[in-house]
Hints:
35% of the residues lie in helices and 22% in strands. By secondary structure, it is α/β, with parallel strands linked by helices. An eight-stranded mixed β-sheet has the order 1-2-4-3-5-6-7-8, sandwiched between helices.
Amino acid sequence: MVDERMENTPVRVPAGGVMLDGDLGNPAGARGVVVFAHGSGSSRFSRRNRHVASILQARGLATLLVDLLTVEEEAVDLRTAEVRFDIDLLARRVVGIVDWLGGETVTAGLGIGIFGASTGAAAALVAAAERPEAVKAVVSRGGRPDLAGGALPQVKAPTLLIVGGADTLVIDLNQQAFEDLRCERQIVIVPRATHLFEEPGALDQVADLAGHWFEAHMAPGERRMARAS
């Protein structure tokens, strides 16, 4: 059984002109680091994301759970639902996070993967297109990769799209995005799962698929992740 009481270090990440709050999970000898990018209404404290992150950590991957919006932006978005669809803003934040990881002592030199959900999946793909050397793999869970638009053909990172079998509209949108991708790509439909993968075992299947994908495409470099002092 995976222990979801992860040992995380609180971090403040400068990205896109603001400071973002995050939690960096730092297992010994990590083979890469996975950034969690989500849309509005979900935070770094998301039960679903933390469950997936704990499984990835157990597989030897570091994780960074980070809020893409500030508290003020989140409050505005809850009233207007506008910021969650500002893909340019979200993507700038993800790019800033990728750059920050590349400059931090404990993560510099590690391959970076991005796990995107909802509109965060589009931001992840735009960031992957802008940082092809740093971003080694992308996984989308019930995401809106179609919103990445013209960035999709520019993505080099191997991309896995995971969609619930009962989430018919999002299946169609993911299939559209799949056709526009030119990188190594795969789409997996989880039978009977709804948008949030709340059915028994569905989220574990997502985590297993993501873990295999990241392991396959984020080969460990010569440098291992240093333990934070």
